[in-house]
Amino acid sequence: xxxxxxxxxxxxxxxxxxxxxxxxxxxxxxxxxxxxxxxxxxxxxxxxxxxxxxxxxxxxxxxxxxxxxxxxxxxxxxxxxxxxxxxxxxxxxxxxxxxxxxxxxxxxxxxxxxxxxxxxxxxxxxxxxxxxxxxxxxxxxxxxxxxxxxxxxxxxxxxxxxxxxxxxxxxxxxxxxxxxxxxxxxxxxxxxxxxxxxxxxxxxxxxxxxxxxxxxxxxxxxxxxxxxxxxxxxxxxxxxxxxxxxxxxxxxxxxxxxxxxxxxxxxxxxxxxxxxxxxxx
Length: 281
Known about the structure:
single chain, Lipocalin, four-stranded antiparallel beta sheet, globular
């Protein structure tokens, strides 16, 4: 049965369509998309509405964004500051910037609210920084966990209690790339300059070898589902894996995935990247 298209939006043309991030909002009604042209798009999947936020420069786009109260976008910039945009009208307003100062966050108000209701809405958002300051890609208890290699083993330590959570012997090879899942229950690891990729189920102490995962490199070439039950990995194609069983669930084939043909650069519009899981996986 063919799948039904819910909504469609024209994001951009050419190289600028390469996204710095693309995230579902928790209520699954919108997608936040950023581009190398310095734009953040808010795509409403049900109203078929696309709001463009022109940040002025790609450095202001950052690595992530949040939608707060259905009305405010907050994004972290590459300069470790935060921009706040009011999107209640068709022309988003940058009303505030927050930067790290010597005594914590310092707020610079860049716009005046048109009415008292908007003022109250802005102040409510700024009141609790814990609400909007965290990267939506990173959550749960792994904030205080650190992974590293020592004497032929991969170790997972809890920094706050200085205790070892788990360990896995991997032999004499000392150079591994390590990727811990948000919940801390799984780890993806592979030797540097090798196609041999493994998934470690830390709870059951089981290791699975994953095939068809060539050319894993630096960057967001993978995505964990919100409950860690699946991991999508970018190679020549995109493969979807069940983390509990190590089974290959599905493959999304790229039109460029032919033997002897190199993938186009990431800045090319033909380069297929993992996008994002919906909040329910």
